[in-house]
Predict the structure.
Amino acid sequence: MSTRSVILLFDDQSDRAGRAELLKGSSGCQVQFIDLHNKDVIAEIKAAAKTFPAANLILVDHVLDKTSPASQEMVNKGSTIVPLLREHWNACPILAITAAPDACQKDISSEAYEAIFSLDQFSRLASYVSSIIAGYAAIRKSGKNLAGLMALLRVPTDDQDALVGVLPEEVRRTLGQPECAHYMFRWFYNTFYRHPGLLYGHAWASLVLGVRGKAFEKYEKHIMRAAYTGIFRDKESPRWWKSRMYSLLLPKSARRFSVSIQQAAYERLHIDEVDFSGCYKCKEKWPEVMACVDDAALDCADMKPMHLRCTRAHKMANAKPYFEELRVMLGD
Ligand SMILES: [Zn+2]
């Protein structure tokens, strides 16, 4: 019998079967496309559960409006079939795919899916599914207590207390139980990995080095030891531990409090001045934060590098310990 992981892909548009092939190619998993077009959804789910009782991951199209007329009366969104899926695959992550992830996020209870992915990022999701499956297996095997989880996340010693402090209550409550992996992944994907705080993505890591986002690649190798290498890592969208970047660039010393991190990076990494980062507002070098241009902008895509002194707290700012505060550019 094959030991390959099994992914089930539920969709009501037959022409999307090609996605299963793409997924198979990039994940190395066995992928089964379950076509719900004009089908009785409950019967299809039951049949799939019989054939694939130990599936490792399920993908559902969030908009299911082309199933059989009888099914339409009870099912029209992927989220409405999630309880049916959970009856058969309680331990398996269920991810939604949709053309409009933000609308979908507002539209449904956060309990429905583990995560929501945008349709246009399907190829990225395809390369990420193996990491999700491996993370689930690792939590079930050795994430039975807090120390085990810290080891799986490869948390630097200095950050362990902070990390334990931000873990959601559901994770602590379910430690050692099968649903703990669901809570861990939801928190990891929607909060810990997404919001800059203990971990920094490309934009914030560039700020630490004092370089423009486009020049980051030139210096990235110097902070390799700060890279996040724990479970659920998304190789296409890497992260770095903030504390490790600081200790690499500015080791504990008397100078530590008198030198800015960008100055330290400049001296240690021999950064070329043409690569210096600049503040979106005042144009001077070495901004410290990513901030919105106005209070209406909330999207990461609308964030620009700015000095702390060139910004104020965003109207929607919701201070959470260890996560960076949302800030907005000062008016003239
Ligand atoms: Zn500035």
Q: What stands out?
A: The CA atoms of residues 249 and 264 lie 6 Å apart.
